[in-house]
Predict the structure of Damage-inducible protein DinB.
Amino acid sequence: MQFGKAFQYKKWANRELLALGEQQFSQLPERDATFFVRILNHTTVVDSLFISRIQGKPEQHRADNTPETPTIAELRQTMDVHDSWLETFAQTASAEALQRVVTFTFVDGDSGQLSVEEILLHLLTHGSNHRGMASRVLAENGLERPRDTFTRYLHQAEPQRRSGAAR
């Protein structure tokens, strides 16, 4: 699996959604605007928890979201830090490192055990799911949603894929 490319996509998709969300944020009802930020904040908190677990460092959060709701600018900064770490890690991790099993305690107190590879897959699917939820908030309010599919990302990142495609 090409985790490096997958995390490049995750970073790109997060940036696309936040940029579009910020442009239209004032058009969202307060409840939807709060949900938009908090569901994405949840994903970056979960990223942070699992990054700490991979690194064997103390976790920075005691729950799967923060008590306070960050601004979009604060969210973007935190999300970018986590996405950059995950992208670099995924590009450089050895096969052996990906198979390492991490034992941890979830924020609800339950025990868990995943390989690093499983953690990375979880973070990719978890983020995708919640980006979809945030995009849905935009759609429900008649606003533009990002066109953030993996294929679009690949064709933007590697334009030769379009020119070399069979017709």
Q: What stands out?
A: The CA atoms of residues 113 and 120 lie 13 Å apart. The domain at 3-92+100-153 is CATH 1.20.120.450 (Four Helix Bundle (Hemerythrin (Met), subunit A)). Helices lie at 3-24, 30-55, 72-92, 95-99, 116-140, 150-157, 160-163.
